[in-house]
Amino acid sequence: MAGSIRKMEEIYKKKKNFTYVPPTPPAELIDCSNFILDFTGRKFLNVGLDSEDKFNIIVQIITPSRYVNMPSDFLRRIFSLMGNILSFVLDVPQKYNRNLFLETEIISLSSMVYQGENMLVIESKTVNGCRVLLNRTDLIKLQYLEWSIVETVIRKTNIIRPLVLKQFEIIGNYIDREFTNVQLLSRSISK
């Protein structure tokens, strides 16, 4: 018996242990609005302008270990499918039952059983490891916040984004003007 345990220990040491490497933290959003899905479970939803994506409105769902970024129109599609999603999630969990609700080139929406409970899986196809699991309580809270989230997205799209773009244009013009003045001044000094 002791020999077999030692053999297993040697085999275990030879194999590489799996270590979880979390994805890079999400980008900071401009004019970010926060919604709490589950405070004790630390699940949050952020809506804001992404400076890395031409100031488009994105939605971030953040959990303690993972996050996912999605365009605001994908969240609207989730809201339109919420009846089907909730009927599956509220159903009795069945092993190995995975449904694909929606899939685009950048994100997929499916379901799975995790710890004996049906969960909604929102997974990024562009960033490896970016996946979020939402249980029935999170989905009901998300549906409860639907109106507020949609109004926030509309306000950011129609009012905030044009203002931010205008401010960046003003700042860019100012920098161009000042840089041109500095170049003209240095040329006149050198002559």
Outline the secondary-structure elements.
Elements: H1 2-14, E1 29-38, E2 43-50, E3 56-62, E4 67-71, H2 72-80, H3 82-89, E5 100-103, E6 107-114, E7 117-124, E8 131-134, H4 136-144, H5 146-190
Antiparallel strand pairs: 1-2, 2-3, 3-4, 5-6, 6-7, 7-8
Protein architecture, described:
This protein has one domain: Secreted effector protein pipB2 fold (2-Layer Sandwich). The longest helix has 45 residues. The mean pLDDT is 82. The strands form 2 sheets. It has a 4-stranded antiparallel sheet with strand order 1-2-3-4. The chain contains 5 helices and 8 strands, in the order H-E-E-E-E-H-H-E-E-E-E-H-H. It is an alpha+beta fold.
Summed up, the helix count is 5
**Name of the CATH class:** Alpha Beta
Estimate the strand proportion.
25-35%
Shape estimate:
flat
Major β-sheet strand ordering: 1-2-3-4
Question: Main sheet, how many strands, which sense, barrel?
Answer: 4 strands, antiparallel
What's this, in brief?
By secondary structure, the protein is of the alpha+beta class. It has helices at 2-14, 72-80, 82-89, 136-144, 146-190; strands at 29-38, 43-50, 56-62, 67-71, 100-103, 107-114, 117-124, 131-134. The chain has a four-stranded antiparallel sheet with strand order 1-2-3-4.
